[in-house]
Design goal:
binds ligand NPW, binds potassium ion, 20 helices, binds adenosine-5'-diphosphate, isomerase, Carbohydrate_kinase_pred_CS, UDP-N-acetylmuramoyl-L-alanine:D-glutamate ligase, metal-binding, alpha/beta, nucleotide-binding, EC 4.2.1.136
Length: about 475
Amino acid sequence: MRYAHTVQAVRDAEGALMARLPEGALMQRAAAGLAVVGARVLGRVYGRRVAVVAGSGSNGGDALYAGARLARRGAGVTAVLLAPERAHAAGLRALLDAGGRAVGAAEGAAVVARADLVYDGIVGIGGKGGLRAEAAELMRAARAGGGAVVAVDLPSGVDADTGEVAGEAVRADVTVTFGTYKPGLLIDPAAELAGAVTLVGIGLELGAPEVEALQHADLAGLLPRPSGESDKYRRGVVGVVAGSDRYPGAAVLAVSGALRGGAGAVRYVGGGGPAVLARHPETLVSSGSPHEAGRVQAWVVGPGLGDDARARTAVAEVLAADVPVLVDADGLRLMSRDAVRARTAATVLTPHAGEAAALLGRAREEVEASRLTAVRDLAELFGATVLLKGSTTLVAAPDPAVPVRVNPTGTAWLATAGSGDVLSGLTGSLLAARLPARDAASAAGYLHGLAARLTEGPLAAMDVAESIPEAWRNVCGG
Ligand SMILES: NC(=O)C1=CN([C@@H]2O[C@H](COP(=O)(O)OP(=O)(O)OC[C@H]3O[C@@H](n4cnc5c(N)ncnc54)[C@H](OP(=O)(O)O)[C@@H]3O)[C@@H](O)[C@H]2O)[C@@H](O)CC1
Ligand SMILES: Nc1ncnc2c1ncn2[C@@H]1O[C@H](COP(=O)(O)OP(=O)(O)O)[C@@H](O)[C@H]1O
Ligand SMILES: [K+]
């Protein structure tokens, strides 16, 4: 698991640790890690040009000390001081003692433009809002110059706690973060600015994270494995209520995801039966209403369902069932909030940003800019587990004390019609296999994103479904 903590949690842990360590020890740990990564990015240190853009806080201190370490190894290091009179005094002294030099911001543009490596030590977890004009201009010059930009702790200008970006922010090639990931390094739009993120341990003892990201090993522990005693009913049956005359393809895609999620059988309910059977003859198809379809251990309702009276009744019926239910697409428009809140079995909602915006009464842009807030608000509003799709997929539990899961897999090629239907089916299948809602949703998001990456390039939604078994083997080793 990869964990991300809030600024407050980092500050608390830092305070406790600093009380036990000699002054400056933590900053030296940070600077040492920063210098190692800088040297790796440079390849050869001797004779290379390094610029250290330093603000007034400890973030600038880290960068100045790292610059001093590279200067001692023969790099030509110049600090560009945004606030010369308030620069980190000991860090600046160390750099000058190591043979580096310092200039003010006015001379900085030429320095950063010529550098092979630029450290962004403008602001770290103490930052508020976007970059100020002078810093923004300098970092534009750095990018235009073509040197590698290494952000210290996080790209300056992004919000560490939420991933929001108000105004301009640094676009880094690499970010070296200290002690723990910050939510903003994992959640877009900020995550996209962080480049490759390296975590440098500095010994912080941290409590519960705000955000966490599954890794391969976590998936292997979560995914169901059939045993000798398994039969199709014990493995779980998932019911899929999807598709309509207008969108029969959604039924096929949702079923294709469900068939590859480890459930023992898939029941399909709706008007898309012939299309489903043509593609997936193993599906148990019925055309009546959900309660006539036979028993299931979880329901998926909504993809391509349309919004006529029959669809509305099907959604209400499924929500009244005492098994986990996933609601997607048209189902999200047809469901009643009270019906969702009244449920005792788990409910998973899987909106994209537009659907989330409609449910929250906000603008879509607001949801995309503040994804963490949006997913938490939705989970609380509906008392449900919410998987918010998009450039960063997030999964929130109804209990705000539970960390939000951020999906580390995926590719922008997934933004293609029908790929969400596959995800719904896959998630439903994991619910039927009795994974808890948050695990089912986050494991499905992970596999779905990995499957998409395995197709390497332009993809159709069915390609994602067909790559799920390979993604599964990838994480579980067969
Ligand atoms: N925690 C840990 O365990 C460890 C933390 N460490 C390091 O310390 C960093 C935190 O340092 P910090 O607290 O000094 O704050 P920091 O991020 O340098 O910024 C504060 C200064 O920035 C300014 N400023 C604010 N907004 C701005 C903006 N938009 N644009 C421009 N400037 C802006 C504001 O000054 P102002 O001009 O507003 O008076 C203020 O003085 C952390 O990220 C990590 O790198 C490591 O050394 C090792 C252990
Ligand atoms: N920019 C993006 N980067 C990565 N994944 C994305 C991006 N945009 C959308 N996705 C993913 O693509 C899928 C699209 O689902 P959805 O919006 O429901 O589309 P549809 O309704 O056509 O199936 C989701 O898994 C979502 O997370
Ligand atoms: K920074």
